Amino acid sequence: MPHENPPDNVIRDILRQPMTIAVVGCSPDPARDSHRIARLLIDKGHRVIPVNPQVSEILGQACYASLADIPERVDLVDIFRRSDQVEPIVDDAIAIGARVIWMQLGVINEAAAARATAAGLTVVMDRCPAIEYRRLF
Fold first, then answer.
1. Which helix (H) or strand (E) holds 36?
2. What is the rounded distance in angstroms from the CA atom of residue 91 to the CA atom of residue 77?
3. CA–CA gap between residue 78 and residue 88 (Å, rounded)
4. How far is the C-alpha of 46 from the C-alpha of 120, rounded, in Å?
5. b/e sequence 70-88, b meaning 16+ C-beta within 10 Å
6. Strand pairing partners for 51?
7. Residue segments in the chain with a per-residue pLDDT below the cut of 70
8. pLDDT one-digit tens code per residue, 91-131
9. Fewer CB in a 10 Å sphere around the end CB: N or C, the chain?
10. What is the pLDDT of residue 121?
11. Does residue 99 contact residue 116 with C-beta atoms inside 8 Å?
12. How many other CB atoms are found less than 10 A from the CB of residue 24?
């Protein structure tokens, strides 16, 4: 059975409440979508933790090589990786106790979504927070 995204009221609640968000695949390049979305999330009041093994800091925030390396609780994992790279990220998100998985536009992995849902996480797939902010607020 294909994954169905949560209803608008749930997505609105996710975006409305300040969270600690790990942005997996965050780029140091301001022209990249992952960088711009991380900046938007900061501007909306969220604590953003970049995850990129290639750099030590993005947007003035310490950057970590993996979710397991983050020394604080993460509420939401925002994934900017290819669909075929999502499953181990979701497994790590489950292991660290994240509550929400958000797969960006074009990132679709039904098996990972099913595993996260079965573990009790809320899963938003193939959506962009910037578009959802404009649409829902």
1. helix 33-43
2. 11
3. 14
4. 22
5. beeebbbbbbbbebeebee
6. 24, 64
7. none
8. 999 999 999 999 999 999 999 999 999 999 999 999 999 99
9. N
10. 98
11. no
12. 26
DSSP single-letter state for residue 104: P
- Identify the bridge partners of residue 102 per DSSP, sorted by sequence position: 78, 124
Give the residue from 90, 93, 86, 107 showing the smallest Cα distance to 33: 107
- The pLDDT, as a whole number, for residue 1 is 80
Using CA atoms, how far apart are residues 53 and 74, in angstroms rounded to an integer? 18
Domain that holds residue 84: 8-136
The percent of the chain in helix, strand and coil, each rounded to the nearest 5, is 40, 20, 40
- Residue 108, both tokens: 């679709």
- The two tokens of residue 117 are 């849902």
Residue 27 in contact with residue 1, Cβ under 8 Å? no
The amino acid that residue 92 corresponds to is: D
Report which secondary-structure segment, H or E, holds 35.
helix 33-43
Asked if residue 3 belongs to a domain, the reply is no
Q: CATH number, domain at 77?
A: 3.40.50.720
